[in-house]
Each structure stands twice: as C-alpha cells, then as structure tokens.
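REQUEST ID: PR-0412
SUBMITTED BY: lab tech R.K.
PRIORITY: routine
TASK: structure prediction, single protein chain
INPUT:
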Amino acid sequence: MADREIKKQKFKTVEKSTTETNSQELDKKIRIHRLKILKRILLASAVLMLIAAGFMLMLRLREYTSYEVVSETEQTDTLTAGFLAFRGGVIKYSNDGATYTNASEELVWNQTFEMQDTLVDECEDYVVFAEKGGNHVYILNSQKLQGSFETTMEIVAVRVANQGTVAILMEKDQTSYIRLYDKEGKNLAGGQIGVENAGYPLDIALSNDAIKMAVTMLDINEGNIKSMIAFYNFGSVGQNEIDHMVGTYSYSNMVIPQIDFISNDRMIAFGDSKVLIFEGTQKPTVSKEIDLQTEMKSVFYNQNYFGLVNNNEDKNNTRHMEIYDTKGGHVLSKDFALDYDTIEFLANNEICIRNEKECQIYNTYGVKHFSYTYDTPLFKVLSGRSSRDYTFVLEGKIEKVKLK
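STATUS: complete
OUTPUT:
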C-alpha cells in the first residue's frame, strides 16, 4: 500500500510539472503574438502619421491659383460697406446699420442705425458700433443687440471688452475725456484724460477683461516731439491710485499712433521708430523693444502675431515683411512684389496681401498658399473652416469658395 502511494505521488508530481511547462509555453506564445500585434499597430500608426504629416506638408507647400464657387450671394452695397470676420461668420456694416450672418449663412441679426462715420471694434463674442464725432453707441454679441445709449460728448474712439464693457475716448471744448460704460450705458469709471500737459490723445486700448486700459498721447512743445503711454487699472489695484493711473512711460522723438491689448496681460504699442511690448497682470511694464530700421508702410496684427512692412521698395520693386509672435520672437522674413492696398492676418493666421484686383495669401512659413487676379473688384477675404475654404467679398456679390 505504501509503495502504491509513493508511485501515485511521483506520478502526480510529473503531471504537475508538465502542466506548468505547457502553461508557460502557452503564455510565451500569447506574449509573442501580442507583441507582433502591437508592432503591427505601431507600424501602422507610424505610417498613418507619416502620411498625415506628408499631407499637411503638401498643403503648406502647395500654391493654389484657382477656385470653385461653392455658393454665391448677391449684394448691392459692397462698394460702401465694411466687412468683419466674427465668430466664424461675417458682419457687414455701413452708415445705415449692420448685419451678422453666421457660419451656416443664416442671418442672426439686422441692426439699423444712422451714422455719418461708423467706428467698429470687436472682442471675442462682442462687437461695438459707434459714431465718430457723434454720440450713438450700439453693443451686440453673436445672438442679438445687448444695449445702446448716447454719450454726452463727441466720440473719438471706442473699444469693447469680452463682456460688453466699452471704453470711449471723447472730446468737449478741446478737452479729452475717457469713460468706461457697461453694455446698458451705465458709467463705470472715467475722467479727464492724462495728466497736465500730457498732450493730445491718439489712441486707446482696453484689455479683454476691461480691467486695464491704456492711452497714447502726443506732445509737441517748442518743436520737440514726445509720446506718453498711460496705463489705468479699474480693479482693486487701481482703486489705491489717483484716477486709477498705475504707470506712465515717456518717449522722446517718437510718435506712437496705435496701441492695442492682444490679451488681458499683453499690449503692443506701434511707434514710428520702435515696437514696444508691455506685459503685466496689474501694472504693465516693457518686456520687449524692437527697433525699426526703416520707415514702416504697414503694421498689422492679431491675437497671435504682428507684422511690419517697410516703406521702401528695393531695386527689384519688392517690399520686405517681418513677422513676430506677440512676445516679440521673430517668426518670418519675406519679400513680396504685390503693390497692395491692404495687408492683414486672416482668422487662420495666414497673411493676406491684396489690392482691388489681386490677392496673395502666405502662411507663417513664408509659403505662398494662394494667388489670383480677379475680374471684379475685391473688397475682403475671409478664411473658412479648412485650408481651402475662403469667402471673397467682391463688387455686387459674396462668394464662398474652395481652392483648387
């Protein structure tokens, strides 16, 4: 009986060992199979990534010279109207009013007004219309009219923030004033502009959150030119300062006609000899200065880049363009020969250079993406959802097109 138990135990031991070996071999085969599948997946993913990268590179390097019209809308007043890209759609405005058509070509609102000289500004979901030299202000968003009111002084310039708050530069009896209003027309803050002998205001800028504002002023005293930029803070920091002013910067022998906040904490000032970049959450300070070696014909910018074009044509009849990011980092140098009327960034960050009959579009790599000569006067170019979709505002019509 004992011998049988010993033999039985030995038999069981051998059987267990064999089972473990078979199980290990099976696990090994499964691991090898899974590894093969993983390698195939990774290889397929790499191939797809290379194909996608190649396709994107092809789109970046390809130049389109024609297009097909996807849809066309007749317009009777394109010659006197202005056009603005807004929330994927188009705002058309004139002295008689404004309309907004969304990306699906649906009319969202039609706002009537009467203005002799229409000022317009937009920030994210809000747009403001005001009458230069007049008193009327209209504030709208992507849904409808949010508020309208009249000022007590003549309007010189207007800026809107992302919640509908507006800053308005006004004049009365040759004295300049600044007012901050909410979208219902309630006066939030303001007063006489600048400090004593600060000069004549040229432009104003308002941060997206309406907390910070800046004014650029020009002072000409006995033939000497001086510009000053004053910063205001309407938050808790500015409450402890006289007239909410939190800083001033003075520049001799320089004119600074244009300033703008391109984010809550960054403002760009375009002078005739320097571009100044200011940064700061409460009290902005200069973070970058770019010296201009030649006179500028054009400056243009959006939320991501700004561009400079010199005013001198070289012996090859070309102009020179420099593109920077909004921190002042150099992005692109490019020469082009088109005798243009307008140069601007499109919503997709492409650079559109055009006159009444010709259009060239470059990407920020310096590659010409599109060029075309039109039979009908061209007034505006808007980028679409893809790299081939655009809207052309021509005399008498608006065309949605696809490049080919």
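NOTES: The radius of gyration is 31 Å.
REVIEWED BY: pending
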